[in-house]
Design brief:
Length: 248
């Protein structure tokens, strides 16, 4: 039985005041939440969020990491620095990193490896573009993305990886994959892992991301192979986020 996981990706949003209010609001509703809950904050707020979340069930994640340990990489943040804040999770391979910052499957796989080597749990994102879905290439794309990581770290490493299937056409668009579309792709992703190891396939959490909100979360999370959600826009309001957390 896989535990439901709901992770918030705040992206580049927030201020000292709004972040503090958001975390306080989430913490106030956590007693009724059964799911594991993670919030992925922008780097400058990690310390504050981690401090507010101490002694609570709320877990904290970063949104990116650099593969190097230290040195002349202006503007970048290493896995070690993320760990230094007591942060346990990091988003890797988000479609915005792939499309806006040119992160290839190889770069993403290396980031997954570096996160794991440093004791961080990657929230490893995959998903197809609209044209890839429309041309019938969804399975080919997610296979390529998953296999790049399996080739690099081996399937055993998925004991410490959370997969997030995020169809790019559903991210921030208000268009959500139907439960059938999402379930079919999640089942396919699990089958890719099962080709290597059926126990790992059964235990790996696969989250859905893409315009998940309080109105559609329950139906999506009820699907057999959907183990929770990675939430963008709806994670910025404590009330909406908590409603999704309670859907699991
Ligand atoms: C995301 O950015 O990971 C995401 C799922 O965004 P949204 O929920 O806003 O579509």
């Amino acid at each position: 039985m896989r535990q439901t996981i709901v992770a918030g990706n705040w992206k580049m949003n927030g201020s000292k005041e709004s972040v503090s209010n958001l975390v306080t609001g989430i913490l106030a509703g956590m007693a009724e939440v059964q799911s594991k809950v993670i919030v992925c904050a922008p780097f400058p707020y990690l310390s504050e969020v981690e401090a507010l979340a101490t002694h609570s069930q709320l877990q904290v994640g970063a949104q990116n990491l650099n593969v190097n340990a230290s040195g002349a990489f202006t503007g970048e943040v290493s896995a070690d620095m993320i760990k230094d804040f007591g942060v346990q999770y990091v988003i890797v391979g988000h479609s915005e990193r792939r499309s806006l910052y040119g992160e290839t499957d190889d770069v993403v796989a290396e980031k997954v490896q570096v996160a794991l080597d440093n004791g961080l749990t990657p929230l490893f994102c995959i998903g197809e573009l609209l044209e890839e879905r429309e041309s019938g290439n969804t399975e080919a794309v997610v296979s390529r993305q998953i296999n790049a990581v399996i080739d690099r770290v081996g399937v055993e490493a998925f004991k410490n990886i959370i997969v997030a299937y995020e169809p790019v056409w559903a991210i921030g668009t208000g268009v959500t994959a139907t439960p059938e579309q999402a379930q079919d792709t999640h089942a396919f992703i699990r089958s890719l892992l099962a080709d290597h190891d059926s126990d790992i396939a059964q235990s790996t959490p696969i989250l859905y991301g893409g315009s998940m909100n309080p109105a559609n979360a329950e139906e999506l999370i009820a699907c057999e192979d959907i183990d929770g959600g990675l939430i963008g826009g709806a994670s910025l309001k404590a009330e909406d986020f908590l409603r999704i957390c309670k859907a699991g």
